[in-house]
Design goal:
Helices cover about 10% and strands about 40% of the residues. The protein is mostly beta strands and about 350 residues long. It has four domains: about 30 residues, no CATH class; about 80 residues, Immunoglobulin-like; about 80 residues, Immunoglobulin-like (Sandwich); about 130 residues, Type 1 dockerin domain. It starts with a strand and ends in an 8-residue tail after the last helix.
């Protein structure tokens, strides 16, 4: 029988009960023995998919033992809801790449069971820190590759070159110029076979007696940093170049700049002799990710849009956004440095 209610009359304890045939009546409590309800003793789990892509779902199949357990209600939890979320029905949603443990626990006691799930985050894009590179014979440059999204499960890439007689590249993306000419370095992801390339022009060695730069500047291959963002006019930039070659400076859109114009990230310093291009250098002003030669709220917005993958930076602009100079994809920490620079709390080290 099933107890419906307890009562007391004339000092005696009575129960209102219901028989299995539906009849309801009263019984003297001294004649009744309460039978404990059957609880869950074992939970067996199975997933319809052990690996899901980010954004996909999987379902947890639950077997409760013994079958006659009175209350079969179970609770679902994920070891990391940033990777995978699970609802009250056992439906799992992949949030980002990674591995989690899913736990199913009986509501009435401590009986529980766990099962593992992997969320796979496919590669959607790759960004290179260079698009066009001019490199003197014998010099080297490392191509940094940013694989997107940030939580991509397989970030491995391979490097190859179009013309091995002009340049060579190693497994880490280090390019070495072998002889004058043009070639491409090609970067390919192992996942999804996505591909990006950069144009490489190898030129003859530059006569160091005819071309020198101010000691405050930092030169890496054809990139020049170390600038003062308050002194980015063409006139000020030329004052730091000591040469008998002709010098022209173009902005990132390819427009020739006058001495009073402002240059910035992506601007090119072209070294010429008799109208022949001898060498070309890219200006890098860390924090200036829109190329106007200033570090302000516009750059902060551009950097935030890149981090949110709304409009991604690439080439020398990607490098300028990496304020930490660790070769990684710009992050919220880089935006903090830009904010502090704008507020004049801490200036970005160039």
């Amino acid at each position: 029988m099933t107890r419906l209610a307890k009562g007391k009359q004339s000092g005696e304890l009575w129960d209102r009960v219901q028989l299995s045939n539906g009849i309801v009546g009263y019984a003297f409590q001294n004649y009744l023995k309460e039978v404990p309800k059957v609880q869950i003793e074992q939970i067996n789990l199975k997933l319809d998919k052990s690996v899901i892509n980010k954004g996909e779902t999987a379902n947890i199949e639950v077997e409760i033992l013994p079958e006659e357990a009175k209350n079969k209600t179970v609770l679902y939890t994920s070891s990391n809801s940033n990777i995978a979320k699970v609802d009250s029905h056992g439906t799992v949603l992949g949030v980002r790449g990674g591995k989690v443990e899913l736990t199913v626990k009986a509501k009435d006691n401590d009986v529980s069971s766990k099962i593992g799930l992997e969320v796979y985050s496919p590669v959607t894009d790759i960004l290179l820190n260079v698009e066009d590179l001019m490199l003197p014979v014998g010099e080297s440059f490392v191509v940094n590759t940013t694989v997107l999204p940030e939580d991509a499960s397989n970030k491995e890439v391979s490097y190859s070159v179009e013309d091995e007689s002009v340049i060579e590249v190693d497994l880490q993306g280090k390019i070495t110029a072998k002889q004058e000419g043009t070639s491409k370095v090609i970067v390919k992801t192992n996942d999804n076979n996505l591909q990006k390339s950069a144009n490489i022009t190898v030129v003859g060695k530059i006569d160091s007696n005819r071309l020198k730069f101010h000691e405050s500047l930092k030169i890496y291959a054809n990139e020049i940093s170390g600038w003062n963002d308050n002194e980015m006019t063409v006139e000020k930039i030329k004052e730091k170049i000591f040469t008998d070659y002709d010098v022209q400076i173009y902005n990132s859109q390819g427009q020739l700049l006058n001495d009073t114009d402002r240059a910035g990230t992506g601007s090119k310093i072209r070294i010429l002799e008799d109208n022949k291009l001898i060498m070309e250098y890219n200006i890098v002003l860390y924090g200036d990710v829109n190329g106007d030669g200033k570090i302000n709220a516009v750059d902060l917005l551009v950097l935030q849009r890149h981090i949110l993958e709304i409009k991604k930076l690439s080439g020398v602009f990607l490098k300028a956004g990496n304020i930490l100079k660790n070769g990684k994809n710009p992050s919220a920490l880089d935006t903090l440095y830009v904010q502090r620079h704008i507020l004049e709390l801490q200036f970005i080290e160039q």
